[in-house]
Amino acid sequence: MAVDPWNPQDLPDLSGRRYLVTGSNAGLGFFSSLQLAGAGAHVIMTGRNPAKLSAARAAVLRRYPDADLATLALDVSNLGSLRAAAATVRGRAGLNGVLLNAGIVHPPKQRETTRDGHEVVFATNVLGHYALAGELLLSLAAGRGRMVWLGSMSTSMWAYDPIDIELENGYTPWRAYVQSKVATTAIGLEADRRLAEAKVPVQSVVAHPGYSTSGRTRGIVGVNAPSRMSRFVDNLQAPITQSKEHGAWPLVRALADPVVEGGEFWGPSRIVSGEPRRATPAKVARDPEIAARLWNYCEHATSPWPYLKASKTRAR
Question: So where does this one cross the membrane (predicted)?
Fold first, then answer.
């Protein structure tokens, strides 16, 4: 058996490459940003809270004083915010990758909506990232880049078909979360099919972090400070969990490894933990009819992607 050359703890030199990460102020987004910056990449750290984003940037610089970082306020649940942020990014060089990471992991007990009128979990985990990917498509095409969507192993345990996409009826926190991840995975896979068909030089990949918890993650001032109870409970689950640092491994590999191909699904080797490997997405997320339905919904709720312009974009 061939030895896998990818070492998540010793990444290849990423100098000269440019990545944007949503939700960089904590969790998987922070550790993905940290790992990319440590390998020499220029990282645009984004988040909706400027103070938390500043603290996260400072934490990266404490580890890597020469890190090439930029910060940008971006709330993916707010269409106006993400469009303004994307306009700022488009005015610079091309992007080699976008990690669509930000999201709600613990949904509200009762259904809530955003200022745009969308159910908050779907708006944050799915719709905002669909819109952001479209807004950044020209920059990604200029960088011959890759978009990575954040999936979840929960979709293989609960096959929720998102017919009531924004859960106007029968809302539960867990269903809102799992359904959003089914939608994210389906759209991420569908995006690659559509980009390839339109001859846009951008790949779309989905990656999931396994079962990654804050209580198994080292404390970092301003970024990760779990309570003693969280430490205790999460460590009881040690055989089936891993740290957020390790949870970021499949995300970073999906974003930066040249052997990764569009339309693939990546996750930990032991499903819940381990080094990053190719995996198989849930059957419900591979259904082309479900993907087309979700794509159509997102397209009408936001705006179509600029395929034609992106296909003609010159590399920068």
Answer: none
